[in-house]
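User: Before I run my own analysis I want an independent prediction to cross-check against. Here's the chain; please return only the structure tokens and, at the end, one sentence I can use as a sanity check.
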Amino acid sequence: MPEDRLQRVRRVLWFVLAANLFVVVVKLIVGLRAGSLAVLGDAAHSGVDAMNNVVGLLAVNVAAAPPDEEHPYGHGKYETLAALAVVSFLSIAGFELVSGAIGRLLGSAAPLELDPLTFVLLGGTMLVNTLVAISEARAARTLRSPVLSADARHTAADVFVTASVIAGLGLVALGWEDADAWLAIVVAVLIAKSGWEILRGTIPVLVDSRAIEASRIRRFIGPVDGVLDVTDVRSRGDLSAEAFTELTVIVDGGISVAKGHEIADEVEGKLVDAGFTGAVVHVEPAEDQTQPGSTASVATHRQ
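Assistant: Structure tokens:
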């Protein structure tokens, strides 16, 4: 049920938020202790994860509201907006990271203070992020949540960022002191890539691009007794989260209104089984087949 789904999304977000806050604190301690800009940038990257969780919790609470007069399709897009809001946080973190790295390359900076504990702690945060990313990705698929999906991708990117930071600090330990600044720029590029992937997934939903091709929707319906043709197929949303479709089925003009509703109900059932949140099916008679007492147009809706 939708309410149960949202409750489960909330629980996942709270768990991930706690894990992200732990990782942020550890990375901040390591970064400040070692004087590493790359590690501090990695901490900022993880901090965006935590902010994403907070925004996601707020959005999910709004999304839990049932459809109303002003939002007849429900409030599910607030989840998508929350995923989009993460991009703004990523942009700020990336800009600050590049600015600091350029400043360090053009100026002079104190040498980093590295010891085995630095690498152990960063390795521990990478393990935590790996477990969180795997668990959150599974929950996103099960619960069909764009917020969890976006955050899981970002957490997975954080794993690679931390791995890169550890490798870069190894180069610093070997004598290449500028490696930390260059690595900070690489981290910024990875942050930008993560933001682009989120944008690519959220913008089509917000501008009501089609959810899937009309031909696939026709295949979902399959052979339904009484349906002569399917036309005017429209869809919007994300089939993996919340999607709606509207279409017209052509039937024999001599059938009754009750039979038209029966056909529409069967079509709707197939569409909902295929993953659509709601479906609107219009029933129209075949041309030159309308008879007195038959149905000229029947519209049914399921959500």
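Sanity check: The longest strand covers residues 227-238.
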